[in-house]
Each structure stands twice: as C-alpha cells, then as structure tokens.
Write a structure and sequence with these properties.
Layout lengths: L10 E2 L3 E5 L8 E4 L6 E2 L3 E6 L2 E10 L14 E2 L7 H14 L3 H8 L11 E7 L1 H5 L10 H12 L3 E2 H8 L3 H9 L3 E7 L18 H19 L6 E7 L5 H14 L3 E5 L6 H12 L4 E3 L5 H12 L5 E4 L11 E7 L7 E2 L5 E2 H12 L2 E6 L4 H8 L4 E5 L10 E6 L13 H12 L3 E5 L8 E4 L16 E3 L4 E3 L6 E2 L14 E4 L3 H11 L5 E4 L7 H12 L5 E4 L12 E6 L13 H13 L10 E6 L5 H8 L2 H14 L6 E10 L2 H13 L7 E14 L2 E11 L4 H10 L8 E6 L6
Parallel strand pairs: 11-18, 11-19, 12-14, 12-15, 13-14, 15-18, 20-30, 21-28, 21-29, 27-28, 29-30
Antiparallel strand pairs: 1-4, 2-3, 2-6, 5-6, 5-7, 8-9, 8-10, 16-17, 22-26, 23-24, 24-25, 31-33, 31-34, 32-33
Helix pairs in contact: 1-2, 1-11, 4-5, 5-6, 7-8, 16-17
The structure holds adenosine-5'-diphosphate (ADP) and zinc ion.
The site of zinc ion has 8 residues, from loops.
Length: 745
C-alpha cells in the first residue's frame, strides 16, 4: 500500500486563524473559528468581508494583530478537500519571489470559482417498474415513441431528458410526458467527467538499450521519492535529440508514479501540442488523461478541477496555468520542451512555470523531469554545476538519422523581386515533391505582410492603441494588431494622403509565402499552420492528421508547428528567414533562435527517409547558424554561457524589469523619472533606464521601462521593495515588476 504523503494538519477551534482570499490584498486576514466549527489549514471556508461573503483558504494561525472585538467569525466550512501543504507553500513562495500579494497567486489555484459550489446535479430518468408492469393498463397510452424511450433505457443507466430523447429519436416533450404519466421515474444525477484509469499493463513499446537506461533512472527517482519522503526531490534533464523517444521514456516514469498511487502533471508549452500528446498517451496507457488549458468549457473546467482536488485524476496534461492546480498528492512533474518561452507569463503575476514547477517539486519532495533537445541556458548551466542531473539520448529511434543542415547564403542567391524562396530552396522543394515526400516551410510571421505602406507618401499603417504596425491578414481581409487584437478592413485609400490605391504590402508573412508556393508549385497541396489559422485543438488535429496521411505536400507554418510533431514523410524543412529572431538585441535572441531553428529542423527525416534542412540567411557566419550547420550545440551553449557570465547576465546575474504604464503619459513619465532618480545606490546593482518601452503604447496605455541588473548574491526583492516604496503612485499608473524577465518590449 502506498503511504499517504500528507503530514497531519493542525486543527483550529475556538481560536483565531488566518484566511487567505483569492484577491490581491496585502496578506491573509484573521478570523475567529466559532466553537461549533473545527477547521484545519488548507480547508476552504466562507468568510465575511465588508458586506460580502467570500471563499478563501485557512492559511494558518492568526496573527493577533486585529483587536479581538473586531474579529469576525468564519461563516462555514465548504465541503471540498483541502489544499495541500506543498501548494500552500508554493503560493507563498511564488508570491514572495515574483513580488505579488499571495492572494493574487492563490487566485491562480482557485481559477474556477464555480468549482467551489456544490456540484451541479441533473435530473435523469429510469423506467418506473410499477407502471411498467401495468403497461396493459388502458389508462396509460403506450405509443411507438414511448416504447422506443423504454427500449433505450432498458439497456443502460439513467439518462437526462435531452440525451434520452436524442437516442430514442423522439422529442424531449415525449420524455417529460412519460414522467408525468408515471411511466418514468426521475433520479438525481451528479455531473461527472469521464475518468478512465490508466492501465499500466497496457502493451508498451520495447525500449532501446539507451532509452531503457534513461527510463530506469527516472523510475528509480520516482520510487525513491515514494518510499522516502525527505530525499524525494531531484531535477532530471532528459536531454535527447529530436525523435530519440523522450516521450516514450518519460511515460515510464509516469507509469511508475501511477503505480505508487500518486498524481502526475505534464506541462506542454502550447494547447496545439496537447492533441497529439493525448493520442500518444492514450495509445500507451489505454486511457485518456485530463487536460487543462484555455480551450476548456466552463463545465469541463469545473469538473476537472474537482477531479484533481479529490485525487481522482491520475494524470493531467496542460499548459503553464496547470502548475497551480490543487493536486493533493503530486508525485511527478514533467515539463516538456522545458526551454520554451511560453512557460513564462509576463502579465499579471509574472512567473516562469518551469522554474516554479521545480519549486513545487522541491516543496513536495518529488522528482521533476525537464525534457528537451535544446536545453535552456539556465538548465544547461544547472546541469554543469551539478544541481540538475542529466540523462541523454543521442540517437534517433529506429536508426533514423539526424537531418543534414545547410545554410543558403542569401547575399549571393539571384532573387526575383517579390520572391522569398531562393532558387536553391526551390530546387530542393521540387526534388522532394518529385519523390512524393513532404516539405515544411518555416516563417515565423503570421498573416500576409507585417507592414502596409503608402507608396505615395510613405505613411505606415499603425495600430491606434499600440506602437506596432498593423499586420495584413488577407484571407480574413483584415489589418490586425498582434498586440491588442485591434483590427480593421483594409482602407481603399491612404489614411494620411488620401490618394486611393497606393497601399502596398511589405515583406512576407505565411499567407504571402503560400501565394508564392501556389504559383511555383501549382500541383502541390499546400496548407498554412499558424496560431490564427488553428484556433482550437480540433483544427490543429485536422491539419496534423492530413499531414500524417500525406494529404498535404507543403506545410507552411510559424513556430506553432516547430514543436513536437512527428511526420514520417516530411524530409525537407526550409527556413525562409533564419535571421528573423536575431534582430532586436534581446538577451536571449541567439539562444532562442538556436532553439527554435534546431527544433524546426528536428521535424525533418524522423523516420526511414533522411531529412534535410536549408536555412536562408544573410549572416551564415553568425555563431547561431554555424552551430546549427555543424551540429555543435554544446559548444554554442558553452560560448553563450561564457558571454553571459562576462556581462553578469542571467543565469550568472539577476535581472528585474519595472514596467510603468498608465493612460496619462505625463504621469507615467513622471513616475518613471522619479524611479530613475531614486535608483538604488548599492554595490553590485545597476539600473538601466528609464526609457520609453519599445512597445511605448500598448492597448492605449503609455509604457516606460527600467531594468535592474544585480549580482547573483543580491537580495533583489528587498532592493526592489525599498525602491518602489519611494515613489508615490497616482491615478491609474501601475508599476509592474517582472523578476527574471523574458520580454523586453
Ligand atoms: P522525442 O520526444 O524525443 O522527439 P518521440 O518520443 O516523439 O521523440 O519519439 C519519436 C517517434 O519514435 C515516435 O513516433 C515514437 O512513438 C517512436 N518511438 C520512440 N521510441 C520507440 C520505441 N522504443 N519503440 C517504438 N517506437 C518508438
Ligand atoms: Zn494594438
């Protein structure tokens, strides 16, 4: 029998407790537990706040700061299992690290307020045995429709009216009239989510010796943590080339965790990836896990949250927000594509879900697996210093070879005007199509053109709410802002000089590339895969299936298609603008470009046929391109790490950004300049700025930035706290703190 992993909870009665509410208040509030009630830390309770009745969580012993006479009673205890101790610690830890009120973090754990209400029930119907016997009774009319309803019910469990009517092919009023006549009796049904239990004995693939060795190491870590509570924590990097079977390997760790009776969380960077992942999991375990992302309906959200907190959900796969779900007994976290920047949230509570997942594992004393083919520099350095363990898989499964990567030097290619495909790449595409193989063209730009310009006066179409160009989406006939969602129909004339028909598209997006492909390869079936053309997991699944069935010859896509997918007949990857991510001087530009292009390259030649990758670049001598072409990842990361160390940049130094925003630009600038004048004068701390942010207006709000750079040993939080406290903030100006920023816009 697995031992429960919870320590006994302190109970309170007839005394003060602190209750944390899911609101951005300074901290937890004290309440009194009346003598007819007994609560324990982690319990959900309802409490009065002003005139309102709110739901919160018992956080611990009261602080004694509030006068006993002013103390209010807890109203009641909710009938929901408690929040586990490690999650409470994670909430406090994240709040402190990201400098947010703990209630703002708790709100992420309690993101489904309706899940706290008593479960919704529905009315179901069963045949009424008494009247069924009296069917011959002439007072009860037995029509054909009514018989069909009874026939449907004869086979199975009680059903709700709509469902029953649909199965029997009758209208819902037939069901209701049968209930009124006493032919059916009603029962109360609890709404439930389908929870299949994963089958550990389900047939599994036979692992190669190196895969088996990695799997054994992971299983050992899981078993060790389940057996001994205090040495269960470890961070393990699963470092394997694309197609090496990392997923199959960490599935074994999941199986071991299920065997130990504990829960598993798998985090993926994007919703679009969950579909293929779910399919693979289902094949491996004969059961679907639960999913968690922004595309769930309200009911799915509520039921999933309840299934998690009750411990019924064994395995959950989700995007970054899944990290704060209330698992009572988490025994393993897997962060797939750990290097991905989508794990960083830079609005509201700014946190990095990968880093906080490591914290959750440490607080809960269980192992965490970081899986990737291109580790983030942070992780790479943590492995080198021995803080993280590393398991490597250096070969593709089944003898598939790694793709051959070559640069196309765009400075010497004879390019047609308004063409984005170099002759060398065109030739390679034609060759692949002739051998009935698939091609992927990668361009990390949605829409038709990133900029629309007036040929007469030079005016550029800009978002009215943001400092950004409007992106033309020709398929939808819209010009849209990718920052705030503003969109408009393309104007007939230039809004500045009012000369008609002068607006011209500048530069390519995926739609424009598709146009060129259609012209050059009219016989090929081409599809676009970008986040706006595949809004839902279902749309993504359709494209993925078409690709797997070889109904698509050329797939054009943005970074959304770079990740995870496995298409056996895809042998050529063409990167249309390999330099795109290098511009802008972002701290992680080189690292990210390497990761992204490496990952895109990894889509080629994953099965029997060898793959080839062509990078169109104007800077083939850039270290990123050279490392990609020569396959020298570790040298590249080592050089990158040395560079960061020399300049005291993360992970060797610390960064924190202050973003000042508001509607009134005078006030925003005043606050930014005051912060600048009061910069901490502290050894090892430097402040860059204030300066208007590159995105100087976003959703109508003016923005300024400051960046604090500090030595690793600096207590950045207390420095920031003292600094921000010096400035009086008025109106709707907001100072957002982003510790470990990823975005510098
Ligand atoms: P990665 O996550 O490292 O890119 P995957 O886990 O997606 O690699 O594996 C690539 C492909 O090879 C998948 O289709 C997977 O099912 C298959 N595969 C990997 N290992 C095995 C194995 N031992 N037996 C059978 N198929 C395997
Ligand atoms: Zn905008």
């Amino acid at each position: 029998m697995p031992t429960p992993h919870t320590t006994p909870r302190r109970t309170y009665q007839n005394e003060r407790v602190s209750v944390l509410l899911p609101l951005p208040l300074a901290g937890a509030y004290d309440y009194f537990v009346p003598s007819d009630l007994s609560v324990a830390s982690g319990d959900f309770v309802s409490v009065p706040l002003g005139k309102r009745d709110l739901k919160g969580v018992v956080w611990g012993t009261g602080s004694n700061e509030v006068d006993a006479r002013k103390l209010k009673n807890i109203n009641g205890l909710l009938d929901i299992p408690p929040i586990s101790e490690d999650l409470r610690k994670l909430v406090d830890w994240t709040a402190s690290y990201t400098m947010n009120p703990p209630g703002a973090v708790l709100r992420m754990s309690m993101s489904v307020p309706s899940a706290l209400d008593p479960p919704k029930t529905r009315t179901g119907y069963l045949p009424n045995p008494v009247t069924a016997e009296a069917e011959g009774d002439s007072r009860i009319r037995m029509t054909e429709a009514r018989r069909r309803v009874l026939a449907v019910l004869a086979e199975g469990p009680p059903r709700v009216a709509a469902d029953l009517a649909r199965s029997a092919g009758v209208s819902a009023s037939v069901v209701r009239s049968m209930a009124e006549a006493g032919l059916l009796k009603s029962v109360t049904l609890q709404q439930q989510i389908d929870l299949d239990q994963p089958d550990r004995e389900h047939p599994r693939p036979i692992l190669s010796p190196s895969q088996a060795a990695a799997a054994t190491a992971l299983i050992t870590a899981v078993e060790q943590s389940s057996a001994k509570d205090d040495e269960g924590f470890s961070v393990i990097l699963l470092d394997g080339v694309t197609g090496s079977g990392k997923t199959e390997v960490y599935f074994e760790a999941i199986a071991a965790t299920i065997a130990a009776g504990r829960q598993v969380l798998v985090m993926l960077p994007e919703i679009a990836l969950t579909t293929q992942w779910l399919k693979r999991f289902t094949e491996r375990f004969g059961a679907r896990p639960l999913e968690w992302h922004s595309d769930l309906t309200g009911a799915e959200r509520r039921l999933t949250w309840r299934a998690i907190i009750s411990g019924d959900a064994g395995v959950v796969v989700g995007t970054r927000s899944a990290l704060f779900l209330p698992f009572p007994d988490l025994g393993l976290i897997v962060v797939d594509e750990e290097h991905d920047s989508s794990f960083k949230q830079d609005e509201g509570v700014c946190y990095n879900a990968r880093d906080m997942a490591v914290v959750r594992a440490r607080l809960g004393n269980f192992p965490i697996v970081l899986s990737t083919a291109t580790p983030s520099l942070e992780t790479f350095v943590n492995v080198r210093t021995g803080r993280y363990k590393s398991l490597s898989l250096s070969e593709r499964h089944g003898g598939a070879s790694l793709p051959e990567i070559a640069a196309i030097d765009m400075r010497v290619e004879p390019m047609d005007s308004q063409s984005w495909l170099a002759p060398t790449l065109q030739e390679a595409v034609a060759h692949s199509l002739a051998s009935r193989e698939q091609v992927m063209l990668f361009l990390n730009r949605r829409g038709y053109a990133p900029l629309t310009l007036c040929r007469h006066c030079g005016h550029r179409l800009q978002c009215p709410n943001c400092t950004s160009w409007l992106v033309e989406h020709r398929l939808q006939r819209r010009l849209s802002c990718h920052h705030c969602g503003f969109s408009m129909s393309p104007p007939e004339e230039c809004p500045a000089c009012e000369v008609p028909e002068t607006l011209a598209a500048c530069g390519p997006g995926v739609e424009r590339l598709a146009e060129e492909v259609a012209e050059r390869f009219p016989q090929a079936h081409c599809e676009i895969m970008a986040s706006d053309t595949m809004q839902s997991p279902t749309a993504a699944a359709v494209l993925v299936r078409q690709m797997q069935n070889r109904e698509i010859d050329i797939l054009i896509g943005t970074q959304i298609m770079a990740k995870g997918h496995h298409f056996p007949y895809l042998t050529l990857v063409g990167v249309v603008d390999a330099d795109l991510g290098l511009a802008g001087g972002d701290l992680r530009a080189a690292e990210r470009t390497f990761q992204l292009l490496h990952q895109v390259s990894g889509r080629a030649g994953r099965a029997a046929r060898p793959g080839r990758v062509l990078l169109q670049t104007y800077r083939p001598e850039d270290p990123v391109m050279e490392a990609l072409v020569s396959g020298t990842r570790d040298q590249f990361l080592t050089a990158e790490a040395e560079e960061r160390e020399r300049y005291g940049m993360p992970p060797f130094g610390r960064l924190a950004a202050l973003i000042i925003s508001g509607n009134d630009h005078v006030e925003v600038e005043r606050v930014a300049r005051t912060l600048g004048r009061n910069s901490p004068a502290q050894e090892g701390v430097t402040v860059l700025g204030p300066a208007p942010a590159p995105l100087s207006i976003l959703r109508g709000r003016h923005r300024w930035r400051l960046l604090l750079k500090a030595r690793r040993e600096t207590n950045v939080r207390s420095t920031l706290r003292n600094w921000v406290a010096k400035v009086r903030i008025r109106g709707n100006v907001r100072v957002q703190i982003d510790v470990d920023p990823y975005s510098f816009l």
